[in-house]
Amino acid sequence: MEQAERERLWALVAARAEGVSVRKAAEAAGLSPTRVHQLTRDAAVDVLDAELGELRTAGWPAPEDLDAGDDAELVGRAAVAERLVDEAGWILQCAQWVEHLRQESFPPVVNLRPEADFPDRHAVVVDLARVAAVLRRVAFDVEELARARTVEDLDTARVRDEPRAERRRRLAEPDLGYAEFCARTGTPAQSIRQGADAWTAYQAERHRRGETDQNPYTAYNPFRPRRD
């Protein structure tokens, strides 16, 4: 109730600042003109701005900033809306994957690399575990998007600068670790020679996944001695 009262007060002050008459503001808020005048007369914008931050922290849909222009607000909202539409597309993709897994005898595959890398591809199998991971990622991103006023406010849900990293993030694919690679592929790494070969194979797999552009055969190998 206190949060709702703060939001209503903010809306009334914003309306008065934009030139809306006391009578019209009172009609919209269901209050008497006298009460609206009392509320907005002593309201300090800086205090309300601090309370607005509390609303955002609590996940409350934040009203518009009195100091922001309409164009800036619309641009920010449009970018957030585009991201929400994109996430809706990922939910539909997950639904298609589930239908495929239910109806077909073979699983669907997805390319870990962005389309700009064509003809380079790295296909991975989509199972129920990946579908669940992608849906969790979408849920976390949508929750953050719902609280953000612009895409600049995003943290975990922000788009990565590197397209390949962003593609893997959208597919809930973590970066490949050396120990995980050896365990998954059964690559022996007990001796120094085996470790050197395993590291080269590991870097080659990272290269195929688009995690690195380095040549796996010339890149630094911790199992090989350095040569000046």
Overview of the structural elements:
With 228 residues, the chain is an all-alpha fold. The protein is built from nine helices and two strands; from the N terminus they run αααααββαααα. The chain has helices at residues 2-17, 22-29, 33-41, 45-57, 70-103, 128-147, 163-170, 178-185, 192-209; strands spanning 109-111, 123-125. A two-stranded antiparallel ribbon has the order 1-2. The longest helix has 34 residues, at 70-103.
Number of helices: 9
- Gross morphology: elongated
Helix content: 55-70%
Q: What is the overall pLDDT average?
A: 81
User: Which oligomeric form is depicted?
Assistant: single chain
| Rg computed from alpha carbons, rounded to a whole number of angstroms | 26 Å
Task: Please provide the ordered H/E string of secondary-structure elements.
Answer: HHHHHEEHHHH
Give a count of the beta strands, DSSP E runs of length 2 or more: 2
Distance between the termini: 70 Å
In which order are the strands of the major sheet placed?
1-2
User: What is the makeup of the main sheet?
Assistant: 2 strands, antiparallel
Beta-strand content bin? under 5%
* Computed structural class: mainly alpha
Unreliable spans: 63-76
